[in-house]
Amino acid sequence: MRAMLWAESPEGIIGSGGTIPWRYPGDLKRFKRLTLGSTVVMGRATFESMRSRPLSGRRNVIVTSRALDVSGIEVVRSLDEALERAGDADVWFIGGARIYAEAMKYVDLIDVVHVPDRISTADAVYAPAIDERAFEPSPLVPHEDEPALTRRVYRRRAPRA
Ligand SMILES: NC(=O)c1ccc[n+]([C@@H]2O[C@H](COP(=O)([O-])OP(=O)(O)OC[C@H]3O[C@@H](n4cnc5c(N)ncnc54)[C@H](OP(=O)(O)O)[C@@H]3O)[C@@H](O)[C@H]2O)c1
Questions:
Q1: Fewer Cβ atoms within 10 Å of its own Cβ: the N or the C terminal residue of the chain?
Q2: Model pTM?
Q3: Which residues approach ligand 1 with their CB closer than 6 A?
């Protein structure tokens, strides 16, 4: 399985100032439940937003052109290299915007959480557009771990080429 997930505001914002501008513990709990045991692939900025600490119980693959001297992570130069490393394991692309945009062609499932927080900031990072000709949206459903939130899954309509 290859998938990606993010949480976005009503404006489609996923981050600002190098971080996520809201906090919902139930969503973090669900994120952990979904990704535990898998390979998580993230961009260097997202890794830094986690204080450059790998997520426990997951294989952490960081995409960057830089050399990162951190234990518990694997550094790759491209998404292709990340997928090569992962082999047959489940892969979650976990951000940020550039990774989501580039991973769109590799994933079968996109999991989007909607937070109600209105964000007004000059340095916002936005979620990519989802092409509904390629991905079929499921109904919006309540977030099982966080009552204030909703979520929607998109599934690839036809097998990847
Ligand atoms: N709301 C959410 O669910 C969510 C989830 C994740 C992240 N975020 C937020 O998103 C923001 C970060 O996103 P971002 O888009 O700015 O950055 P990002 O995608 O996390 O990282 C960008 C960096 O990753 C590396 N990179 C990405 N694609 C690459 C490729 N194909 N080849 C080589 N290197 C590649 C480059 O690193 P180098 O410059 O080192 O070469 C690039 O500068 C933060 O605010 C974070 O909190 C939100």
A1: C
A2: 0.97
A3: 6-7, 14-15, 18-20, 42-46, 49, 63-66, 77-79, 94-99, 102, 125
